[in-house]
Design brief:
heterodimer; A: 206 residues; alpha/beta; six-stranded mixed β-sheet; 33% helix; globular; B: 464 residues; mainly alpha; two-stranded antiparallel ribbon; two-stranded antiparallel sheet; 48% helix
Chain lengths: 206, 464
């Protein structure tokens, strides 16, 4: 049964407003892209089951609002994350410049036990725009930054075309998994006391 | 009374003469040319009598200018007080007031080079201070709002900011922002500023107020304001200054929405990005939940304003460039009070494509795949008559579930073991799913109530 046991991996997606965080998540989870321009309020999250080496995992992907006001809510959003995905728009220089800010903010707020080795993954999104002619951040530059921050894996993606999204999230899942302490795997899934209490306190089903 | 006194180190009768026009008029001191001087020491003397707080602030502002003069004169020496000799030849030069609409009044001409360079405020900054000390100007609608906002707005509009994609949503370059803030505190909007920076500063201005402009309204009031009339009534409860600011902001947002084909910001989007800045909350969870309510409130007022401008409601429809057919699901009749839940049912789409019609209508789009796959019970129930009482009671039950979930989150915080926190993560996730599911089952109830709950469920989703 050990192979059927599900584990929850929490992934947080961070980055400036409008770089495509929600779209990347929707492309990965639902394989859909919407042209609709839609700001995120607070945070949404989706889950997706992934299989890796005979084991099933639930990837819980937190999509946070890029809005300034919600940046102060970081602690609550970031806590317990197993992997942090930093997204920028290859066509907007400042969204790349701000990666540093997002990374530091995450490490500060989430305060992981081993910040040096905490798994990040960087995604350069929207490479489809204008056939790549409007991009201002070169792959080389992005990779150099990633290398300087402890060899962060880097992917160039297009949430619109679905390009490289699956590969990126596979890497994200793998890195999140690496961050998991071994003993968690043996957690019996039948003991779910919290859920039972939750149901009782939830009130009627009207 | 407070008097401003000019004190000369070496008084000579001739030097007085050019000061004998104390009541020089100073219209729009804010725009006066700047100039440098530093030949005199200034001293502000208070003489008995009742103090008006505004004047105290003015005195403080003038004291600061004393510091500046002194520093520039004193070659960097510390303790400027030491440089000022005993007062001799003290005389009353001018009575200066700070008028919220006209700025400093009665200011001697020779002071103008110093004062107009300061913030259009009796404080030294235009951010994070009470509106009580801000200089006001009238907007075209007759709202008296801080001059700085009108300046930012004018520059934003002049630069074509209304047509910029994602205006008010896109993060500004933080490096530039500090510089611009600095300039704004001197009363200058520097040229060549990124329009996203200007928009970001307008949001920041609201966010940094000592109290949010909607803070005088209780959360319950905002939550219970479901209809447009409710929201309008609620807005009337605001104090005059806050009411003016809200009206200004709503009209700014309506301006943005009217340019949606260019900027992609529909009423929901602009309400989303403004909502978190309108209230001040310490607890992040409460702030997040409340932001959804405020978003609904703003959205309602924006839509009302747009209709008032003679535009049909479809100003908020997506731009024609949108090829996704599900974007056009909205029936053309579309009274904008259309029941959002029904609208989505007709769409038969799990994506909340009618968001632009009703901002809180998000629950199914945001739920986990498992929940989304479950049949939508309200598809078949939507035409059933709702029991008013039952429908009424639902929000409170939903609320209690939210609170329960919140408690579950709290438990997750307390337990330290990693395994335990994993457990509670799962449990709160389960309960949130239940909330979402149960709110979906309530589709037969009143639409507005349901959408309120959807909003709650959305929040819960975020916090599982």
């Amino acid at each position: 049964m050990a192979s059927r046991r599900r584990m929850l991996l929490k992934v947080v997606i961070l980055g400036d407003s409008g770089v495509g965080k929600t779209s990347l998540m929707n492309q990965y989870v639902n394989r859909k892209f919407s042209n609709q321009y839609k700001a995120t309020i607070g945070a949404d999250f989706l889950t997706k089951e992934v299989q890796f080496e005979d084991r099933l995992f639930t990837l819980q992907i937190w999509d946070t609002a890029g809005q300034e006001r919600f940046q102060s809510l970081g602690v609550a959003f970031y806590r317990g994350a197993d992997c942090c995905v930093l997204v920028y728009d290859v066509n907007v220089m400042k969204s790349f410049d701000n990666l540093n800010h997002w990374r530091e903010e995450f490490l500060l707020q989430a305060s992981p036990s081993d910040p040096e080795n905490f798994p990040f993954v960087v995604l350069g999104n929207k490479i489809d725009i204008d056939g790549g002619n409007s991009r201002v951040v070169s792959e080389k530059k992005a990779k150099a930054w990633c290398a300087s921050k402890g060899n962060i894996p880097y992917f160039e993606t297009s949430a619109k075309e679905g390009f490289n999204v699956e590969a990126a999230f596979q890497c994200i899942a793998k890195n999140a998994l690496k961050n998991e302490p071994e003993e968690d795997i043996y957690l019996p899934d039948t003991i779910d006391v919290g859920a039972g209490q939750q149901q009782r306190s939830g009130g009627c089903e009207c | 009374m407070t008097e401003v006194v000019v004190h000369h180190h070496s008084p000579s009768p001739s030097s007085h003469q050019h000061h004998h026009h104390p009541y020089s008029s100073s219209p729009s001191t804010f725009n006066s040319p700047t100039g440098a001087d530093g030949d005199r020491d200034l001293e502000v003397v208070e003489e008995g009598g009742a103090q008006v707080s505004l004047l105290e602030v003015l005195v403080a502002a003038l004291r600061k200018s004393v510091v500046r003069c002194s520093v520039s004169d004193g070659g960097g020496q510390e303790g400027f007080g030491m440089e000022i000799g005993l007062p001799t030849d003290v005389r009353h030069v001018a009575h200066v007031t700070f008028d919220r609409f006209d700025g400093f009044l009665g200011l001697p001409v020779e002071f103008e080079p110093e004062v107009p360079r300061r913030a259009p405020s009796a404080s030294t900054t235009v951010f994070g201070v009470s509106t009580d000390s801000m200089q006001l100007s009238y907007d075209p609608r007759g709202n008296g709002v801080p001059t700085i906002l009108l300046l930012l707005q004018r520059h934003l509009y002049d630069q074509g900011g209304l047509q910029a994609e994602g205006i008010f949503r896109i993060t500004a370059d933080t490096g530039q922002e500090e510089h611009v803030r600095d300039q704004l505190n001197r009363g200058v909007v520097p040229e060549g500023v990124d329009m996203h920076c200007l928009a970001g500063l307008i949001k920041a201005w609201f966010r940094e107020l000592p109290t949010g402009i909607l803070d005088s309204l209780s959360q319950e009031q905002v939550m219970q304001s479901e209809s447009e009339e409710d929201c309008v009534q609620l807005a009337r409860l605001l104090p005059p200054m806050e009411a003016a600011l809200l009206d200004w902001a709503i009209n700014l947002m309506a301006d943005v929405v009217q340019n949606e084909p260019f900027n992609k910001m529909n009423a929901r989007n602009i309400a989303v990005v403004f909502a978190p800045n309108m209230t001040k909350m310490d607890d992040p969870l409460t702030a997040l939940m409340y932001a959804v309510q405020v978003m609904n409130f703003l959205w309602t007022l924006i839509m009302r304003t747009l209709r008032g401008r003679g535009d049909s409601v479809n100003v908020s429809l997506p731009p024609s460039s949108s090829l996704d057919p599900s974007d056009d699901i909205e029936p053309q009749s579309t009274s904008f009070r259309l029941l959002p839940q029904e609208a989505r049912d007709e769409a038969g789409n799990e994506e909340p494509r009618v968001i632009q019609k009703y901002p809180s209508d998000e629950v199914s789009g945001e739920v986990t795949p498992e929940a989304a796959e479950s049949p939508n019970p309200h598809i078949h129930k939507k035409n059933e008559p709702s029991s008013g009482l039952g429908a009424r009671s639902c929000p409170w039950e939903a609320a209690s579930q939210v609170i329960a979930t919140k408690e579950a989150c709290g438990r997750g915080d307390i337990v330290t073991g990693r395994q335990n926190s994993r457990l509670s993560r799962q449990s709160s996730k389960a309960s949130a799913k239940r909330v979402a599911a149960s709110s979906a089952e309530k589709g037969k109830g009143g639409s507005t109530i349901l959408s309120r709950m959807s909003a709650r469920a959305e929040v819960v989703e975020a916090w599982r």
